[in-house]
Amino acid sequence: MPICLDISKETIDDLRIRPGSRITLRDLRDDRNLAIITVDDVYKPDKQKEAKEVFGGDAEHPAVRYLMGTAQDYYVGGKVDAINRLNHYDYVALRFTPAELRQHFNKLGWSRVVAFQTRNPMHRAHRELTVRAARARKANVLIHPVVGLTKPGDIDHFTRVRVYQALLPRYPNGMAALGLLPLAMRMGGPREAIWHAIIRKNYGATHFIVGRDHAGPGKNSSGVDFYGPYDAQHAVEKYRDELGIEVVPFQQMIYLPDSDEYKPHDEVAPEIRTLNISGTELRARLRSGKEIPEWFSYPEVVKVLRESHPPRFRQGFTVFLTGYQNSGKAAIARALQVTLNQQGGRSVTLLLGEN
Questions:
Q1: Is 317 in contact with 347 (CB distance < 8 Å)?
Q2: Which residues are catalytic?
Q3: What is the side-by-side strand order in the sheet with 207-210?
Q4: Helices marked H in 203-266 — which ranges?
Q5: How far is CA 192 from each of CA 63, 181, 250, 339, rounded to the nearest angstrom?
Q6: For residue 241, what is the enclosing H or E element?
Q7: What pTM was computed for the model?
Q8: What are the tens digits of pLDDT across the range 162-205?
């Protein structure tokens, strides 16, 4: 997975960037110095080739759109020397470096660790999947979610981390641990799955779960998947010896209401009754306030999601009234405040601003 530093021709000219230049890389949030790059190359990449080889070439792929529409025209390459670690102020206790997490496993006495990658909230199916994988390999579970950039429309990482924390007590005592991965996903499917496996090996995992459509962005506007459902599993399995980490392939987990259990899709006979709630339906239930059943998710997980994504009738809103002086807008605002307070159900604040 290429990690590219893109730059414009204007910046190259303004800063006189050329082989041998030493450039400070800064955190855009506070201008803090993070590293120095000693430039070896300044070149114009073949973006069409990069799009095809890395992401498959579909023009609707979000990473391809970014590459073609947002990334600058030139790349800078060279040796990077670190100066400072990136500062994070959220969930500091869950942010381990690879060396720190390996040391944490040693303290816990864990020698076999199954890593689970996710960019979504976890529900009962995910818990069943990870417990099944760990028990089959006599291992422990590392829940290792991505908390950098993910797919547009994904639930924010603050909410997701609270979900993972709420879910942890549902695991058998001492089986699972939570750590955060500060990574910007490229949604690169098979190639990204290999990248994820390498990262988890560096963090001390011995096994890595690769699920259905791992790191895939879904479907294009024609309704066609960007990648096959198990392309990522096949890619990681192909290079398992070089990667040095064992692949744990898993199919989609399906709920069987008659036996109140989850099973992998390939173990369920066609005549067996099943239930499922898609991500789209889950978001619709959150918006409308409709019930989310316990067979799908745990009450404490649903509580976190509802707090962050309340239904429309529980959300706040603002009414702006503008007009000429003495046009009556203040009187209308007071009447509206009284009417809303009369209806009840939510607090109402009136702010009057006059020049």
A1: no
A2: 118-120
A3: 176-178, 140-145, 113-118, 207-210, 246-249
A4: 231-238, 240-243
A5: 12, 14, 17, 55
A6: helix 240-243
A7: 0.85
A8: 999 999 999 999 999 999 999 999 999 999 999 999 999 999 99
